[in-house]
Amino acid sequence: MMNEAVTGSRRIRVLIVAGNDLFRSGLVSLLATEPDIEVVAEAPSGRSGAQLASRLRPDVALVSLRLSDLKGAEATRAILQRSPTTRVLAFIAPTNGHESPDSDEIERVIQAGASGFLASDTPIDEIVTAVRAAAADSHWLVPRTVEEVLAAMRRPDAAKQQHPGADRLPPRELELLRWISRGLDNEEIANRIGASPPRVKQLVSSILRKLGPPDR
Length: 216
What we know:
This protein has 216 residues and is of the alpha/beta class. It has ten helices and eight strands.
């Protein structure tokens, strides 16, 4: 069942797409405590999420990679086709208690246009920060996701044909990815590489643009 909420004119409008009812309800409850964020709708499947995105044009869509009808990349693509201005944050949900997406799956979601990734156990303050970053047209990566991206970049050239942007990352952006993979936040990374936190955000956005589809 698809549930809708009344939107606020100045709030970040969020759509949640996740098959697990409890997981979805938990996100709604957690985000409801933030005065600048409003969950405008929730959906249990990729297709219903795309329909809601088409009608409501949310600022951000939180999309689980584990949906009953569509894979994560398919759901991301469907939402962005219906609502190109929406920013998708993919949830890397666990299967049987383990984080299970492989680098191929993460690559496909990047190429579909996702603006970032969150793990299922991401603290609520990080979820809120990621939503705000996505609404501001920035990108968000969690350390375990970066490990998968770096693994993909170490593949043989034949495999990289599906992920050509990896070869376009300069040393500074590769260094930033490695610091993210070690769990450093933007301020800590800024101190390490001698840049400001806003500059770090710009570099992360640059990385995902290169890894993602050419028209986004």
